[in-house]
Amino acid sequence: MTRLVHRELANGVATITLDSPPNRNALSVRLLSDLKDRLDWALAEPEARVIVLTGTGRVFCSGADLKEQRADPASGAARAPVTGSFPEILALIWESPKPVVCRLNGTARAGGLGLVAACDLSIAPLTASFAFTEVRLGVVPAIIAVPVLRRLDSRAAAEYFLTGEVFDAARAAEIGLLTRAVPEEELDATVARYAEMLAKGGPEALAITKRLLRDLPEVPFEEGLRQMAELSAERFTSEEGQEGIAAFMQKRPPKWVPPAL
Max CA-CA distance within the chain? Predict the structure, then answer.
C-alpha cells in the first residue's frame, strides 16, 4: 500500500511530508498512522537533529477526513476515528526533544492548524489562508484547542474559533499562529535558514530549552529564578556545555554540528 507520508534525512534535517493531495492531506486513519510512524522514526534517528513537517500540493492539511467521520450507514452508529491517534501525534510534536518546524506548502484548516500550532516554528507563504471551520459543521475545535490556545492571542482565538472566518497568513503571524509569513518564493530559503540555525544548537540544550519555554511561565517568579540558577550551573558544567565553550574558544564548530554545516 502506498504511503501517505514520506520521510527524508539530509544534513541533520528529517523532512516528513504529507502526501495525500486528492483529499487535501486530510487527517485520515491511514495518514495519521503513517504520520505517527514517520515521527517515531525521526525522534529515534540519531542523525536527525531537526524535524521539518510539510505537505504536497496547494493545501498543507484540510483537517479531519470528513468521509471517515460520518455515521455508519448500516448501523447508524457515529464514528470519530480522528480522535484516536491525533492527540498522541500532537503530543509527540509538542513534546519532541528535537525542534520541529512546520513548512506550510499552502492553506490549512481546522485539524491542520493543530499541527501548525504544535510545531515549535511555523512558516507559511503569504498566499496561504487559514480557518477554524469546526463550528460551521456543528462540531468543536476541541483537540486542536490544546496547542492552539497556547499560541494565539485570546481575543483572536475567540474571534476565529467562534466565527469560522477565513484569515490570511499575515494575520496568522500577527496573532501568533505562525512564526513567519513570507513570499512564496522565499519559503524554502526561510525554512532552510531556520533548520540550519537549529541544527547548530546542542541537542541537550535544545531539548531543555523547549521544556523551559513550555513550563517556566507557570512557575512563580522567585522559584523560577532559583530553578534557573541551578539549571544554568548544571549546563555550564555539563559535557555538552564544556564542549560548546571549548569550541567557541578554539574557533571551531562544536562536535554536534552536522559536517555539512
Answer: 71
Average pLDDT over residues 224-246: 97
Helix axes 239-249, 221-236, angle to 10 degrees: 70
> Residue 63: which region, alpha, beta or left (left: phi > 0; alpha: psi -120 to 50)?
left
Phi, psi of 44 (to 5 degrees): -90, -20
> What count of other Cβ atoms lies within 10 Å of the Cβ of residue 53?
27
Q: What are phi and psi of 132, to 5 degrees?
A: -95, 95
Q: Which of 68, 134, 230, 243 is catalytic?
A: 134
Dihedral Cα 114, 65, 106, 12, nearest 10 deg: 60
User: Catalytic site residue 159?
Assistant: no
Nearest Cα to Cα of residue 130 among 148, 150, 155, 154: 148
Using N-to-C axis directions, what is the helix angle for 203-215 and 239-249, rounded to 10°?
A: 120
| Alpha-helical runs (H) found in the chain | 29-44, 66-69, 82-95, 111-118, 145-148, 154-163, 169-174, 187-199, 203-215, 221-236, 239-249
Q: How many CB atoms lie within 10 A of CB 212?
A: 15
71: pLDDT confidence band, cut at 50, 70 and 90?
low
Environment class of 70 (CB within 10 Å of its CB; exposed 0-12, middle 13-18, buried 19+): exposed
Residue-wise pLDDT tens digits, 72-121:
665 554 566 667 799 999 999 999 999 999 999 999 999 999 999 999 99
Instruction: Please give the mean pLDDT across all residues of the chain.
Output: 94
Model confidence band, residue 70 (pLDDT cutoffs 50, 70, 90): confident
Q: What pLDDT score does 103 carry?
A: 98
Helices 111-118 and 82-95, interaxial angle, to 10°? 20
